[in-house]
Amino acid sequence: MAIVINMPRLSDTMEEGTVAAWLKKVGDKVEEGDILAEIETDKATMEFESFNEGTLLHIGVQEGETTKVDELLAIIGDEGEDITSLLSGGGNASEEVKEEAAPTTNTDAQAEESADVALPEGVIVVTMPRLSDTMEEGTVATWLKKVGDTVEEGDILAEIETDKATMEFESFQSGTLLHVGLQEGESAKVDALLAIIGPAGTDVADVASNFKVVSGTTKTEEAPKKEAPKVEAPKAEVKQTSAKPSKPATSSNGGRLFASPLAKKIAEEKGINLSHVQGSGENGRIIKFDVENFVPASSGASVGKFVPTGQEDFDEVANSQMRKAIAKALTNSKFSAPHYYLNVEFDMENAIAFRKQFNSIPDTKISYNDMVVKACALALKQHPQVNSQWFADKMRLNNHVHVGVAVAVPDGLVVPVVKFANEQSLPQIGAAVKELAGKARNKKLTPAEMEGSTFTVSNLGMFGIESFTSIINQPNSAILSVGNIIEKPVVKEGEIVVGHTMKLSLACDHRTIDGATGAQFLQTLKGYIENPVTMLV
User: Fold this and answer.
1) 103: closest CA among 217, 218, 255?
2) Which residues form the Lipoyl-binding domain (predicted)?
3) Distance (Å, rounded) from C-alpha 194 to C-alpha 106?
């Protein structure tokens, strides 16, 4: 019978999704595991895999269109099946599907009880793990072991890409890797067959071939398909198309070229040769961004060609789901928290000399931002009101200090967190910030590394910005904006001399931080920044 496919929730904050590309057309055959479409969420563009087999009978959301989670996305069923009642809202197939798909806990015992083929002695079936609270499927980014390798308990089997990050998956069993159920780059639902481990030489072909995930329940036998009466649909409803087998793209040196399906589709539409495009994805994979921003090499300017001027022109770019999520969060913060700003300018002469002397130590290098993070952490311990968080029914005064450091990435802004920053040395803070920023730019941050901040630092000084204000990262009560160190005339002891200063702006939530409290925090911060040796005491 026909199965209703709804817009999936591919991230914990996703409320709606945009169809970036359909990989199947109405009338196409769909196998379990086929990629139906690429869905743009608030965090990334992700491949959406079919967990059903049949014919794609209807597409409810066209490419570029957006709909809310759990709204109709597509219908899959038998070729020619009448789906009029489903489209008119009279059917209850979607309810039946939800009832059948009620998730059950998978255990090896359940798999064995439902199996026609018993597991050989010592053989363990490893399924796709749930590595985050919102994870529904995972992609094997890299295998760290190959078939035939010995696996010890605690060894890293593979790197699994979830809806939030790429994470290492550790083996909890010892034995020999006998079978790999997913190749690198392939995706499957949580609890699907990932690998089989057991004694060397054990034949597990029957186990692998009969292992299925049926409606969320792991079984080692094929689920019986329900037959439904076939009703011939109008010809306009189903278009039969024959898919042409595509050859894998190759690079200029003849090697395999890796590109996402959406990147290939856009390249084909624009007539771009992918072998000329430099990939920015993992392992050099070409993604949508690379194709859309590809500029072909110039073949020389034409001589004497008239180019009209004064012509109005513009490009319209649809808001990405991540950009929508950022806009929603910042709008909520700006209009729910009564912001006010305290602006200061610090003398940086001692800080410059301190950093130069500190970095003269072999294998040691700290930045001005590391010094600001450390100074904030120490000052926050003395002013817990600034280290507070506002909730609807209470105010939380944090005794620990977790400093969030804003990092710009191509898709938006993320805030990894330096935990217990007040207890860490300057080199430790520098190493932590460098590692977290690198993970952020490579989309390797784990959810735990982005949670729990009690205060945030945003530094645009490295981009030459002299001063700016920021929006509070809720539920925190304050965020510090750090500008560039500038050289300018200053007055010292009645004389005008050349000096170096830095402007900072503290955005405060007036519900938790009064003006005098914020000013006192900045006075303490000034003492640490202008006399950085006091941070070592």
Assistant:
1) 217
2) 2-77, 123-198
3) 13
Identify whether the C-beta of residue 237 lies closer than 8 Å to the C-beta of residue 82: no
| DSSP bridge partners of 159 | 142, 168
pLDDT of residue 99: 36
- Rounded to whole angstroms, what are the CA distances from 470 to 66, 333, 406, 519? 30, 11, 11, 17
Residue whose pair of structure tokens reads 């970095």 in the numeric block: 359
Q: Which of these, 282, 281, 278, 280, lies nearest to 294 by C-alpha position?
A: 278
Please give the pLDDT value at position 103.
38
pLDDT score, position 247? 43
d(CA 187, CA 280): 21
Q: Of 176, 61, 226, 165, whose CA–CA distance to 443 is shortest?
A: 165
Which listed CATH number (3.30.559.10, 3.40.50.1970, 3.40.50.300, 1.20.272.10) goes with 321-536? 3.30.559.10
Three-state DSSP at 485 gives: strand
What CATH number has the domain spanning 261-292?
A: 4.10.320.10
The CA radius of gyration of the chain, in Å to the nearest whole number, is: 29
The confidence score (pLDDT) of residue 1 equals 76
Average pLDDT over residues 246-275: 71
Compare 424 and 300 and report the one with higher pLDDT: 424
SS3 257: coil
Residue scoring higher pLDDT (332 or 504): 504
- If one counts every other C-beta atom within 10 angstroms of the C-beta of residue 324, the result is 18
Whether 338 contacts 488, CB under 8 Å: no
Fold classified for 108-219? OB fold (Dihydrolipoamide Acetyltransferase, E2P) (2.40.50)
The helix (run of H) or strand (run of E) holding residue 339 is strand 339-347
- pLDDT-derived band at 116 (thresholds 50, 70, 90) equals very low
Residues designated as active site: 510, 514
Angle between helices 349-358 and 515-530 (to 10 degrees): 50
For 15-47, b/e burial (b = at least 16 CB within 10 A) is ebbbbbbbbbebebebebebbbbbbbbbbbbbb
- Render pLDDT for 187-220 as a digit per residue (tens, 0 to 9): 988 889 999 999 999 998 888 888 754 333 334 4
Q: Which sequence spans correspond to the domains of the chain? A: 3-100, 108-219, 261-292, 321-536
- Report whether 346 contacts 506 (CB < 8 A): no
Residue type, 219: K
